[in-house]
């Protein structure tokens, strides 16, 4: 008798479990509609492929430091050349013209030295070209990356961006006051 | 020879070439006593330990900019009367106003030439 009661209870329990399982199956089927997630995963995968293709590591450790090196070299070379030219000017100003032939020879020598120093223009031009080439590669890769991310809208400049850009373009002379106006301002104080 | 040409002048700039150019121009004009400093801080140290009749200073330097140097000098009774001419690429109206209110006596915009330097020296130190 007891076993009969137990069997009925077991059957009821099994029926209840069956209903739970059915519910879970329905829920599982609903959850199986993961297309947005799948699309997101595909996008992430595509982007990671693009990132790998763009070799950001190479840009960061190889090409971009080269730009820095080139700019540093330009600064150094230009400074050295200016120093050589200024030194030559100093020597020219100190020349003793009481011995014209000696002075003429010295002028020639110094002039040649100045011309040699001016060769920095050629070297600087080459370095600038090299740095610009690297920056072009970086620009192209960043553009490809932006396209892979779907970010193709042109960047909108804020007023501050424009001011910064124009300030960089014209350097210290942006909004410059003429020397005559500066003098007037200082005189007015007196 | 004008006594003005014996004025000890301190040239302050972190760009050695500018110092050299200013020294050369001053020498050409007949000045004989020039010294230099590479920052406002170094200049202030030299000014406090020596005697100078004029300071010609750049603006952008560290430590202590040219304008901070002018302010420090104007706040120091011993240096308050020493004239300062700024030579700088900073030529915006607000820069000029700042220099003027800080107590600079003259302001020359880079690039400059011997003529404009002589004109400022004459207006600050007198004819020579």
SSE blueprint:
The complex is a heterodimer of chains A (190) and B (128).
Chain A: H1 2-31, H2 35-54, H3 56-93, H4 100-118, H5 120-148, H6 159-170, H7 179-189
Chain B: E1 9-12, H1 16-29, E2 34-37, H2 40-49, E3 54-57, H3 66-74, E4 84-88, H4 93-102, E5 106-109, H5 114-125
Parallel strand pairs in B: 1-2, 1-3, 3-4, 4-5
Helix pairs in contact in B: 2-3
> Which pair of chains forms the biggest interface, and how many residues does each contribute?
A-B, 20 and 23 residues
Q: What is the H/E string of chain B?
A: EHEHEHEHEH
**Shape by Cα distribution of chain A:** elongated
User: Average pLDDT value of chain A?
Assistant: 78
Care to count the β-strands of chain B?
5
**How many E-type strands of chain A?**
0
Q: Rounded to an integer, what's the Rg of chain B over CA atoms? A: 13 Å
Q: Which structural class best describes the helix and strand composition of chain B?
A: alpha/beta
Biggest sheet statistics of chain A? none
Flag low-confidence runs of chain A. Answer: none
Shape of chain B: globular
- Strand fraction band of chain A? under 5%
Q: Helix tally of chain B?
A: 5
Can you give the helix content of chain B as a percent range?
Answer: 40-55%
Number of helices of chain A: 7
